[in-house]
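User: Sequence recovery, please. Input:
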């Protein structure tokens, strides 16, 4: 099975990367691979072209996912007040659900809430 790599949207901390590498090797952050202030469409296209799962708190990506479907597949963190430790725990705990999202050709969005 191919490792699942994430693209963390700019609205998530870059500090999450180190804590997620074991569960999601090859994951990257939007600010590191694009630039600060990249548009939603730039982030969307980067995830699509690089076969990354887009992880975000931004409702705009939920809408893009509903409008365009996958790729990229989107994991939307709908809990607003999640700290870094909670985001890590949530993503690590949802690894099997994220793997099912990746495997399901018809699925485009996974909503995670604490």
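Assistant: Recovered sequence (114 residues):
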């Amino acid at each position: 099975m191919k490792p699942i790599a994430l693209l963390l949207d700019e609205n998530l901390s870059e500090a999450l990367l180190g804590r997620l590498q074991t569960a999601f090797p090859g994951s990257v952050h939007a600010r590191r691979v694009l630039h600060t202030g990249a548009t939603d469409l730039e982030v969307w296209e980067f995830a699509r072209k690089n076969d990354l799962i887009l992880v975000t708190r931004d409702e705009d990506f939920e809408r893009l996912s509903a409008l365009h479907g996958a790729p990229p597949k989107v994991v939307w963190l709908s809990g607003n007040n999640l700290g870094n430790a909670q985001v890590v725990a949530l993503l690590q705990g949802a690894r099997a659900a994220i793997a099912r999202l990746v495997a399901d050709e018809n699925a485009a969005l996974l909503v995670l809430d604490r």
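The two ends are 27 Å apart (CA to CA).
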